[in-house]
Design brief:
62% of the residues lie in helices and 9% in strands. The chain is mostly helical.
Length: 130
């Protein structure tokens, strides 16, 4: 996975990649319109952020007439998984169990969340036994 980690992106770049993920693919105008709900940004500001994201390997584009349509090069899940792995390495010395133990001790999990965790554990066990 080339380029920066998701955690390393600046606020604007993070907002832009999030917008493209939500839209699936988008022109600069579409991203600008999508982000305008929170903050008015200049077209050139969005264009520059998208060009930097493309250079860093987060986006690719294709031409449709005179308009470039940008698409993500990885899914939100792929980027999040990479960031999670990096976090576990950095904070818990690569020990995922230690991270889960910490989360279980420090979190107020609802019965529904606990059921979902149990379901995930059961599914993982089934995968391993295949």
């Amino acid at each position: 996975m080339g380029g920066k980690r998701l955690d390393d992106l600046g606020e604007l770049q993070r907002s832009v990649i999030e917008a493209v993920w939500e839209l699936g693919e988008a022109s600069v105008h579409q991203v600008r319109k999508h982000l305008a709900r929170e903050k008015k940004l200049a077209y050139t500001t969005i264009l520059t952020a998208m060009q930097k994201l493309e250079k860093a390997g987060w986006l690719r584009h294709r031409a449709e007439g005179k308009v470039y349509i940008y698409a993500p090069t990885r899914t939100r899940e792929e980027a999040g998984a990479h960031s999670a792995r990096q976090f576990i390495e950095r904070v818990f010395d690569g020990d995922a169990l230690m991270m889960f133990q910490h989360l279980m001790r420090q979190s107020e999990l609802s019965d529904e969340e606990l059921r979902e965790l149990r379901k995930m554990i059961d599914e993982k066990r089934k995968e391993r036994s295949r």
